Amino acid sequence: MELLSKEKTGKVDRPVRVLQFGEGNFLRAFVDYMIDIANEQGKFDGDIVLVKPIEFGSLDRFCEQECQYTVQLRGIVDGEPKRINRIVTSVTDAVDAYGEYEKYAAYAKLDTLRYIVSNTTEAGIVYDDTDRLEMNPPKSYPGKLTKFLYERYKHFDGAADKGLVMLPVELIDDNGIHLKECVLKLAKLWELEDEFTAWLNEACVFTSTLVDRIVTGYPRDEAEELCREFGYQDNLIVTGEPFALWVIESAKDISKEFPLPDAGLPVIFTDNQKPYKQRKVRILNGAHTSFVLASYLCGNDIVLESMNDELILNFMKATIFDEVIPTLTLPKQDLLDFAEAVITRFNNPYVKHALLSISLNSVSKWRARCMPSFLGYIEKEGKLPAHLTFSLAALMAFYTGTEIRDKALIGHRDGEEYNIMDDAAVLEFFAENSAKEAKEYTHAVLSNESFWGQDLSALPGVEEAVASYTEDIRALGMRGAMEKIFA
Q1: Which of 32, 129, 212, 471 is deepest in the core (most CB within 10 A)?
Q2: According to the CATH classification, is domain 275-486 in 1.10.1040.10?
Q3: What parts of the chain have a pLDDT lower than 50?
Q4: Long-range Cβ contacts of 265-270 (<8 Å, 24+ apart)
């Protein structure tokens, strides 16, 4: 079959307006996909150049296909399982920041450039005081960005209209704020002129973003079949779910110049992304953390099985609608719509999301994702949220084991071993305490302030309720206990 190329896609050449640090699956199925739609609809006239920001890896596949590729979104749309194919033509080139430094650096002098997108992993936005301006390029992403911006500042003599908009999508809170802090620190370390710092502050925009889409990447087992279906060879296929959300927070309003919502895209511009972050963490992530451990001990292995298990599905719905949503601040209809979208996403037949994968580091996850709703409900309603309280007992049941082997605590389900993965100190605690009788075990867990940041056993009624649930789980098994309490 013929390899996908610009000639085959009929790509329209547009001015390069976006430089993207990172060529991975997520950016290509999220940012580049959205910009492609906006281009097609005449809302954004711009091409993207991908930058490989690390020394290892190859751009060979991108070169061979001239950066043309297919995105297939798979999931429930209007109540039916669907696959939606799109050939993305918004990417025009890819460059190696190390192997093609001069070509990469020349983009700093490009008049049409306006946006810098990045996804350099959570560890990418870090201040490295060993970076130097003389390096071609500096090692860290903030180092590369600082030098790139400085070269642009110098080339355009500090012109106010040649500043850039930074759109980091790394999964850390306030990613744009942290990125700007790193850039300013490096500018000071390198003793760059004060006028450059002023240009960074006045001409450039550092946004903080929240992104949401499950991208499952290259469909290795189906690629050959898909290419036959497409009628061309594509070695850069990306698969993901239909749901997407991009929240962009900035002090300066950029919605008019980056009008993706006008193309019907799920992009929200705001001066405060925190309510959206809270909504995602508490409803989407909180739902995961509250039901997956109980579901696994009920015999399920993936999220989809959990959604087909009426007991678990009802438990999850009650947790979200009755206990989490009442503690949140966004308009209720927004929260209800988001919750329904979450349930649809959990029912995606194309995503095999393993419960044991989600279970990693569940103690810290429960603290970050579930505890705010737990405490907020108690404060607002003056009583315990039954499902969130039970999820604590389910966590304790899941974390039951006495043997640590290969950095995992060994749990047992129906006579079969499973690995409990968490920080070493957490696993050691449960190895020492999980075999104790229910009340003593419950007190040890709830009073462990290093887990929760406070003594949960001091909250009225919590210890008694969790101990009672734990006794039921031990006597009846997880499913039997849940049927007794919630069915």
Answers
A1: 32
A2: yes
A3: none
A4: 265/34, 265/37, 265/38, 267/34
